[in-house]
Structures are given as C-alpha cells and as structure tokens.
Amino acid sequence: MSSKPEAEPSWGSQYRLIASEKWKAKSAAMGQPVTDALVDYAKPSLGMQVLDLASGTGEPAISLAVRVGAQGHVTALDLSADLLEIAEKRARTRGLDNFTARQADAHALPFPDNSFDLAACRFGVMFFADPAVSFANLRKALRATGRMAFACWREPRENPWMMTPLQAVYRHVPKLPQPGPEDPGPFSFASQQRVNRILNEAGFTAVVMEPCDLSLDLAIALAP
User: Fold this and answer.
1) Residue 215 contacts by C-beta under 8 Å, 6 or more apart in sequence?
2) Peptide bond into 165 cis (omega under 30)
3) Which domains can be identified in the chain, with CATH numbers?
4) What is the pLDDT of residues 82-102, one digit of tens each?
C-alpha cells in the first residue's frame, strides 16, 4: 500500500511518468545490470528492513524485496505518486507482500530514527538539492549497524554514454550554463573526495567507492 502526502511535488513528476511508460521495456533491460550490481554490493540479507530512495517504478526496491524475504520489508520512496503506483503493481505481480510505496522527499524523511538496516539508491543521490541534509536525515533513519549503498555516474570523460548527448546539446546551445561542482546533476557524485566529505559529515564512516564497468558506466558507494 502507499502513503501519500496531501500535495505531490509537481516538478518532473508528469515527465517522469510519460518517459517511464514510453521507455519501460528499454529502461528495464538497460538498468538491470546496474540493479544487479547494486543489490549484490549492498548484500541484503533475510529479515532486513530496507529503504530504497528515488525508487521510481520500483527498482532496486523489488529486487531487494526478493532478497530480504517475507521476514524483511522494503519501503520504496519517491517524489512521484504516479511512478510509485507502477512500482506497486509490479510488486503485486511478483507476489511481494513485503513491499510498501511511500511518497516523500529525501530531504524530509518521514521515518523514526533507527528504522532501517539498509538504504539503497540507484542514480538518485546526484540530484539531491541538499545532499548534506538528505544524508544526515538518512543516517538518523538507519540503525547503528545500518549502511547505505548507491550507484552514481563516474567522471564525464570516462562516460561517453552520458557525454555524447550532452556535447550535442552544448554545440547547439553554446550559452547553456555549465553546472558547478556542488550543483545537483548527473556527475555531482563522481568525485570520491566530495562523496567522502558529504557522507562523513552526515555521520557515515569507512566510505568505499568502487568503479563498476558495466554496459552503463557508474560507481557504487558503500557507507556503514
């Protein structure tokens, strides 16, 4: 079941829904290697309470729900209620009773402290408007032994999949402003130094960030 606030944020929600419906099959095929790598890296175990941030249409939340079993539970969090409805339908199709969708913002998590054993995010952390606030809130929502695992894009020069279309845009729109190093955007978490600083200030320790060479170029970070 879903829990929804009174007003849904309007930015991006409808566009994400349209894109999701139009490219659902392609997106699923393209994103599965990333999901598999992230879930394997996070090492979910039976009985865990898991939070998936920016879950969209349900991944990696659904894959995590399979791994934690009936004894565990996964909460899929996203700004868009429409996308979460798709996630719920997918979870029901899989017969997953340990899956809940929750519309909320990572900057104001609606959970008591010490609620989760594991948090995950696939390509969402880069777009947090205030990552310091988001990760500090997340650290509080995790138990003392909890950890966070997320996937993010690596450096632009190592990522032709993302840079090729961006370079085409810049050729035709030369005055388009370039994002700053601290601005939200696809590569805002590419720097190991910045990731360490943000997560350490939020209370995470022993942060590990490893390159992962898949069909999509990304990095995975783990922070206990």
Assistant:
1) 30, 33
2) no
3) 9-223 (3.40.50.150)
4) 999 999 999 999 999 999 999
